[in-house]
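Replying to the earlier thread about multi-chain prediction with a worked example.

Input:
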Amino acid sequence: MKRGLTFLSLLVALPWAAYAGPADSGDTAWILTSTALVLFMTLPGLALFYGGLVGSKNVLSVLMQCFAITSLVSLLWLAGLYSVAFAEGNGFMGGFSKAMFAGMGTQSLTGTIPEAAFALFQLTFAVITPALIVGAFAERMKFSAMLIFSGLWVAVVYAPVTHWVWGGGWLGEMGLLDFAGGTVVHITAGVAALVAALVVGPRRTFPRTSTPPHNMTMTVTGAGMLWVGWFGFNGGSALGANGSSAMAMLVTHISAAAGSLAWMALEWRKFGKPSVLGIVTGMVAGLGTITPACGFVGPGGALLIGLIAGVVCFNATNLIKVRLKIDDSLDVFPVHGVGGIIGTLMAGFFASTELGVFSGFGFGKGIESLGQQLMVQATGVLATGVYAGVVSFGLFKLTDALVGLRVDEEQEVMGLDLTQHEERGYIL
Amino acid sequence: MKRGLTFLSLLVALPWAAYAGPADSGDTAWILTSTALVLFMTLPGLALFYGGLVGSKNVLSVLMQCFAITSLVSLLWLAGLYSVAFAEGNGFMGGFSKAMFAGMGTQSLTGTIPEAAFALFQLTFAVITPALIVGAFAERMKFSAMLIFSGLWVAVVYAPVTHWVWGGGWLGEMGLLDFAGGTVVHITAGVAALVAALVVGPRRTFPRTSTPPHNMTMTVTGAGMLWVGWFGFNGGSALGANGSSAMAMLVTHISAAAGSLAWMALEWRKFGKPSVLGIVTGMVAGLGTITPACGFVGPGGALLIGLIAGVVCFNATNLIKVRLKIDDSLDVFPVHGVGGIIGTLMAGFFASTELGVFSGFGFGKGIESLGQQLMVQATGVLATGVYAGVVSFGLFKLTDALVGLRVDEEQEVMGLDLTQHEERGYIL
Amino acid sequence: MKRGLTFLSLLVALPWAAYAGPADSGDTAWILTSTALVLFMTLPGLALFYGGLVGSKNVLSVLMQCFAITSLVSLLWLAGLYSVAFAEGNGFMGGFSKAMFAGMGTQSLTGTIPEAAFALFQLTFAVITPALIVGAFAERMKFSAMLIFSGLWVAVVYAPVTHWVWGGGWLGEMGLLDFAGGTVVHITAGVAALVAALVVGPRRTFPRTSTPPHNMTMTVTGAGMLWVGWFGFNGGSALGANGSSAMAMLVTHISAAAGSLAWMALEWRKFGKPSVLGIVTGMVAGLGTITPACGFVGPGGALLIGLIAGVVCFNATNLIKVRLKIDDSLDVFPVHGVGGIIGTLMAGFFASTELGVFSGFGFGKGIESLGQQLMVQATGVLATGVYAGVVSFGLFKLTDALVGLRVDEEQEVMGLDLTQHEERGYIL
Amino acid sequence: MKKIEAIIKPFVLDPVKDALKEIEIYGMTVTEVKGFGQQKGHTELYRGAEYQIDFVPKTRIEIVVPDAKVEAAIEAICQAAGSGKIGDGKIFVSPVETAIRIRTGERGESAL
Amino acid sequence: MKKIEAIIKPFVLDPVKDALKEIEIYGMTVTEVKGFGQQKGHTELYRGAEYQIDFVPKTRIEIVVPDAKVEAAIEAICQAAGSGKIGDGKIFVSPVETAIRIRTGERGESAL
Amino acid sequence: MKKIEAIIKPFVLDPVKDALKEIEIYGMTVTEVKGFGQQKGHTELYRGAEYQIDFVPKTRIEIVVPDAKVEAAIEAICQAAGSGKIGDGKIFVSPVETAIRIRTGERGESAL
Ligand SMILES: Nc1ncnc2c1ncn2[C@@H]1O[C@H](COP(=O)(O)OP(=O)(O)O)[C@@H](O)[C@H]1O
Ligand SMILES: Nc1ncnc2c1ncn2[C@@H]1O[C@H](COP(=O)(O)OP(=O)(O)O)[C@@H](O)[C@H]1O
Ligand SMILES: Nc1ncnc2c1ncn2[C@@H]1O[C@H](COP(=O)(O)OP(=O)(O)O)[C@@H](O)[C@H]1O
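Result:
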């Protein structure tokens, strides 16, 4: 537990940059590596994972969206969002004292690592979160609209929620357990994706004749990269190289494996054949779900979390797409949103030290009972989910008013690659 | 030498978890990184390397097999195989005291790193070894049979052999030099692959009209990832970030480069043109062969090991496929099996400190002469090879009896992607 | 500044291997990781980035060239080039005392890291530099000629220039600021590429009917890998895990993002649509340009450097290809060469501590004024550019005399994959 | 017996197929082709260099039908594939002397 | 001179080619196509959503032969491509007025 | 009305297209095919195992033209595609009964 909370306590307890001894080289090495791994999750990981799932006439648009979001969010992070998330402020947002990374030199530390490493590591989280949303409106969104929405969303949803949970804000103070972003990343992105699917509306071919994934090998390649990169995402969230980061990686891996097999088994039973898209989707479900929990639970807990993630997200996907006929194109909400929700709740449960082989490493600071912890977790889920939902809705409406959300029918038929970017994916 | 044996001596000398000071953050950082690199070798590295070599109607089956093995073996490792390999036991297998990672907290150490890091790092080795075998029976094996065989094989072959060599078992005790898995990984997988090819039988089109690789760019991509990931495989096997891991990486790299050029040169001379499949196969041969040796030999020795690997594996491939007409589809035995064998032998030779510019860093603990070391190495090769061969044969027969090994002719013609997984690789 | 110059001062101040205490495990972990990242940039990163941009009948030739260069240069580095670059010698080249890595054991250190790690890290730089040049003569060069040229070039251009700048040679002594290879890598490769385009001559279809990129998804995949790998390239050049490496990574990232958006914006304005090839090219421009500067400038400086990189390289590409009709096939000179030149100059400028929010961390050792620093930077640019240009010209002529540079017309039409390597990229 | 060859826009393949099914034409063979005609191609830009793509992706449907069904088939295709825009495509009708079903060796209209 | 067009299963291409070679027909042109007929397509499932794939991959062989060889060619193709299962495919025979060898300008049967 | 089908080497597609444009033939449909004839394929080697590739990549151009233009078209194609080397390809001419423009329903030569 102690290790697990390093990050939170740090932000809460220390006046920024008060200490300026040398950084711990091992901790620094691991966070620099984790940073590379998390960027790798987005580029090319997520880009490939998503890109393979759309039609071949839209593949470049997905890759382009991931690249453009990465670049745009990076500059916004520099400009002021890092400050909004992590500078001293009130319980709801940080101030602007760290805009343009003011005062950050090679000697500034955050805990045992250089502040530059911390800021960059966090930047990669800010990048991947809006990139996740891309899956919901794939194959029909205008590039300009996507850019405007993503920029606004990171500023108005991601940065403040990060402050609430990790930046010294009210949810962190309350003892919310969210090690690597169940609320901050997966719930915010997942809920925004659901809103996107509803506001933008379905692809014109949905569900009648929608095209199957154009390149499953690309998707599986991306999936492998996500699994590997997630080691940095979750393991790096310990902000050091120690027993806590190692355990976070271990439970992350177990949950991914369990989610994969659970999804595979369900498909096998329900549809007669296990598919590679199924197994990798189960993997993402397992990974997303363990994310908030990975610093607090043990291997036994991770096994259950992964299995539950596979089962719940499998059914959620079916519900949203097949039953409710909502065209969240690449199933962002049922996998990330639902995974984030149940993961945040289960983090509270499996953190308990009294579950025998399924025990974890203890509750949040100042929290005494399982019930109390679960209440805090539920509060976190609700607050971040509702906030993300409402504000995302507003931002889509605003973007629609500014430039319009969708391409016209002819462009949708011709594909976004040619009509938005004047390029084609393959000329084999 | 001392550094090189850190791992072995540790396992032998220390009662487990006796020491619980803080982990060394630098060593931990490197092993966490190495873990990510070794997982990366399997997903997506090996999956792509193999996937590109089969026909396009079977590409997903290969990717699926690699993913499913990864997930399945991970859970088995948790359930008990880590314990079989590394818990205290007798010379032949460990006990079950570490099943479900019992007693492993964030404070437990293995040497200077968290035990969670050690267990996860070793898990990635347990994953890639059965995944290597997939290449032998590609394009014709039932998915269910593959799953059953792989699960059994890891339990009955991989985990015990790991105990023999690295877990305090008889081969390690004897002074066998196997730094990163010449016997444990490459010989066991290579021999099992040969058995697979013989028991499962050739593809129906072999050798008359077999299809060439469907996507060499995918194979080359995977090859690049294997080279990079192997740094973690071999460099991480020092279980720390120090001169020994650096040297292991350096000699690994030299051997890969030498194997590549050797294979390329032979192809150029024999067939008139050097091919990219040739150069990457030579690379794998160089990497597999240096694996047992990488902690014991110097750069000069690595150069010779790599060159010899290229030459021997080149000829072995020709022998098996073209002359003996054994359909080890992706040449697992001639590359990994043969590489593992000659590498383990050469590790004994080039460890010698008396070879001038080709010197290494000394023999195994308690071994006095080159002859004695070579006897030990030969014993290791024979014992692991014969054991893997015999048991793999039995497991294939058992699996055959349970569910049948091969798909029927029509399914083989239609391809495994559609018939086993109801998906297609590409819809361009 | 101090940290930034660790590397230089080390080489200058310390007699080699004089100190043999234990390596710092954290620094070692980071450099081993960085080494893996930089190899990853070439294999498969650059190979894919370039491979996607050529026609599908030439894709394997590009991959093959990258692989063969990697292997060949690795062995040359072992044989003597590491020594030429980094052994003690005169101001122009090192001696041969470190040929075959003589005297390098597991205990030898370079600064705080094992010398084996240093030598391998530097090897990955020596590998990628000639691989960059491949883009200039893609789709028409004989494989044998490529091999001969690359081997000679690394020996006669790369190794000595490395000595000048980083090996204790005259440019380093003069106070040249080149943190990670603006002169050593990008200017030498970029200028050689320009010479290649002129000496080898345009593709037979240029510019009339040249084929567009055959697989943009491959190019974007490679681009993502380059971005990630560059963290090791620039962050690793601090030779340790500390505030300096963290800051180098941070500014590298900012510059990449700024370059991407600048290029995208220009395309959008000039051609009406932003393209994914445009954004990734801007990214490479941003990365190449920050490379010499990344240890010396702050985030504000990096933002400007990235923006300027995007604008200047965008226009340079247009100038070379469209206006001057020089067939530098994959735009190596306008992106890497021009980026290296302006980056080296801007490193001198933005290192100044007196630019407010755009300040850096100070000038080179013994340099007092901005003017003086800029003179040194200009000297570095000129010296490395002219030397690389003249010697590359000679080497191309020599290679032409030995084996001829180009394939014949029929082979060019049929493609290099079949005619040079008897393989095809795709059989879908 | 006639062969009807229709060059249509790729995304109307499904409607055309359905329209033919309705008049009980079940057999057809489809090829992806590139067309050149009044409908112009497009320009692609890669790093500022223009690539004029003259050819437009089209789909070619080939059906062999008894003489009696020719007009109905033409009608059905025009109905399903026509949008009134340039590039809707062409139908070509040509004679076929006989058809053989490989499986049974049947010849003539019964082989269709 | 006739054109013989056979729509066959992809994996019998090699046997068909060999059978034609045996009766000394060396020239042919092959296209990958998608077929629709009695042989039904299949369903693919992606995350539980069904995609009905109506079209079956087929290979189209086109040979232009002198009238005298038509029957032999039909015979050879039926022999090599027939498995007796649905989907074996069709052969269509249609008239060709002339053939020209581009290289030499020769016309008629000698151009084949 | 005739259909002219030319099997040519892929890289002469552009010159052939241009040559046809010059004689005011604007409509054409192009397919990527594999050819088998006097021009032999090649061998590919993967890890020492030989794969004989019998088929050569070819491009098939199909143009339907009024009778009056047949000779000019043949001439133009031979001119643009002929290199005098084996494998230059063939031209086949066959009858077409009618053509329909889907967009307008026009029939006959005016539909071309
Ligand atoms: N004379 C022709 N011969 C063969 N194919 C043709 C001919 N004219 C047109 N086509 C095909 O029909 C397609 C549509 O023709 P186009 O002239 O673009 O539009 P429209 O159908 O409105 O007349 C072309 O892309 C081409 O594939
Ligand atoms: N009337 C037709 N016109 C053109 N192609 C046809 C026709 N009927 C069938 N085909 C082609 O022949 C293939 C095989 O036909 P199908 O009805 O499935 O089986 P069978 O060969 O047993 O009659 C189809 O997939 C299609 O490509
Ligand atoms: N009898 C034929 N029927 C159909 N296509 C043919 C025939 N003969 C040749 N072809 C096509 O023409 C191409 C060129 O023919 P080939 O015999 O190689 O050379 P040439 O054009 O010099 O006679 C072949 O690859 C094939 O696609």
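The CA atoms of residues 142 and 407 of chain A lie 5 Å apart.

Feel free to reuse this layout for your own posts.
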